[in-house]
């Protein structure tokens, strides 16, 4: 739909668009081994919470297909081992754990009495996660239409488009839906240090979609709100706690604070697969800390003195009090989020 395929499953081969080399190169990598899929998630060949979830589900499908097991019990033990390997790939995006649990639950159905029946069920569950994600993204865009005024100047962080999902996108999907509905919108894209998902990936996507956009450095958002005037911020997220606290790419919290100071609405777009009702607040969300080299180097070029101490937090938590609304595929949650998220989650079919 955005003119590229981010994730594809074809006859037992998982194909991923290698996001590490965009926008210079459009390269696809093929996977038949779930260990390599876990490695690809860790190294951010693919990234973005919903994309990570769908990829992990197909990692489970590869584990099922590669089995030497001759009985269901052995296969189920192997699937649990594969699940553990895939769970270790990245800690923050709950979609990873959610997708793996969904596949395991399906495989555990006692009605599946043969190895091939379990394999088919695992693949079917991965395909269902894939299809549902596209539908969820389009539904979020639809629900959010009323929140996006014509002529809106919209600030966005990281990459949340077709590259971060199976297709279409969450927060970028909101911008895209408004654009496709005929609204004249302009997206300001935080470059998103250190891996530059905004400058490299969001700009690549919006250019292909002919959506007007401008890349800004991460520190420019307050200046833009004060001078150009921003009508709303919309971001994606990796995990929402039951009270509405939201983990997203590092820098999101700063953006939310700037938006709060300027009275700019701050929206989070998240499929319900990103909502983790088991965590009471954002304090319990695990925050990934990545390799210091992502900060000390630009490509192969070192920008800090030798041995500079670095803390490379990949995510931060935005407290619920700075969030205007959370846009999901089943509706929009407003504060108090403890009530509204519980009410929305009760609408999810099948119930979770
Ligand atoms: O480290 P990344 O690139 O996987 O982080 C991605 C983000 O923070 C996105 O905003 C989030 O996953 C939502 S994607 C629809």
Spell out the key features of this protein.
352 residues; globular; four-stranded mixed β-sheet; seven-stranded mixed β-sheet; 11 helices
How is this structure best described in words?
There is one protein chain. With 352 residues, the chain is an alpha/beta fold. It has helices at residues 34-42, 49-65, 72-87, 94-107, 115-144, 171-180, 197-208, 221-226, 252-262, 293-296, 337-345; strands at residues 7-10, 13-17, 28-31, 153-156, 186-190, 213-216, 232-235, 239-241, 246-249, 266-269, 275-276, 297-298, 301-302, 315-318, 325-328, 331-333. The protein starts with 6 loop residues before the first strand and ends in a 7-residue tail after the last helix. The mean pLDDT is 97. It binds 5-S-methyl-1-O-phosphono-5-thio-D-ribulose. 5-S-methyl-1-O-phosphono-5-thio-D-ribulose is lined by residues 47-50, 93, 158, 160, 164-165, 170, 197, 236-238, 248-249, 314.
